[in-house]
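Hey L., structure's done. Input below.
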Amino acid sequence: MNLTKSGRLITWLLILLAISLFLAGCSGARSYRNAAASGKTYEVSPGFREFYNSLGGEVILGPAISQNFNYQSYECQYTANALMCLNPVVLGAGRFGLFPLGTALNVREDPSENVSNSGSRVVNGYTIYEEFVTLYDQLSGVVYTGNPLTQVHLNYPQQRIEQFFENVGLYRKFSDPPGTVRLLAYGAASCTKECNYHPALEAMILDSSNTISDQSLLEGLGKVGNSSVFGQPLTQPYLAMDGKQEQVYENVILYTEGNSGTVKLRPLSILLNMLTMEPGEKVYGNQNGVVFYSVKDGLGYHVPIVFDEFISAHGGTILSGDPIADVIEYQSGIYRQCFTNYCLDYAPSAPEDQRVTIAPLGSLYLEQMQKSVTLQQPTVISPDTVALQLSEQYKQLPSTEPQKIDLFVYRKEDQQPLAGFESYLQLNLPDGSTYNSVLPVTQSDGRSTVIIPSMKNIPNGSILTYQVCLKSASTQPICAAGSYLVWKIP
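Output:
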């Protein structure tokens, strides 16, 4: 992107932000929440039962996900988190062991040469994370856990602290209390052909060398430019609930349409209930760094040129679908615009070839698909957990016309809409007074609407600012603000 285009984009964003005052946006949607495991499980083989229970049983090792099988001179059985094996020619407890799946998964990094020994457990140059020591010892240390393969790491995409060992991997979710340690799904990651088991997303090993090679649906998508912008596949192709083949990628969802086998993108933004706005009239053009996408009766959305160029280079609007909202600043310094089939992010401070990317929403779709039917944990109402998004029907209107304000209340963690929230609006008038109104409670889609009546005495050219706040039990106010222009052409 050259300096001229960059300047146009910045001009457009400044205009957009100044007029709309989008102070709150969509959640980054880059984290994984717990989702239920699913798939085929088996009884633990009688020969392994005592050994299995001695290591913590299903709570620690997970369920058995394969039947007994022979491997070289051993008898083995997969669990979700490990591979149990026994040597039939050896007697006693020494006949049992866990196979080094971590080594087979090619998870490895060099040990540190300068490791502090002050109160830490260090094995072969690797410091065992202090919260993992208890489970490490419970599994008899090196005997069943194996030697460390990595130092401890913070895995932000999957929201966990993790460390890989030869036989098992240990992790704790960021959201769990300290000391709540579990095993990574080594077994499920290794047994991809014989097993039909999908672990909880929080325990998956998404960056292992055991990558998903079947990308046949992608091949049927046609000319898309550089398909790497879709990210890595998170699943093999599978039969979806509607009977169509489907495959989840990090950023998009592919599926086959009809008997022809044509491959298309699922309307991911719609399925995830991303923020939508009513289309408006064309106000800006190329000179402002935007392209106007008309979607209905001459109304549409302003799309930054850099987004338009990205879409054109990657299959056009046939793949992206129409825009469903204007640009918002969903995170400090990161701008997002959602289209029917995916959302685009713009990071001005990133390297030039990485400034425009497709938002990684595939994991949210996968989570929604695998979500447990059990009740979700209650959300503590606070500005850290709940957000508001506001939009006006008209960015400018004469004082003789009413204005409609739309409110969307959602949970920041996963952008899920929140129902049953009452809120109030305060509109600041030019004479220093205010207009106040109570909004109806939000419906199941998290939305509510209020109509501001016409105010004929408002001077032409006035910018009216307003604020909507939740009536909640939070000790801190949860609010969002916006503005619009009162304008009638003389």
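The first helix runs from residue 3 to 20. The chain is about 15% helix and 30% strand.

-- N.
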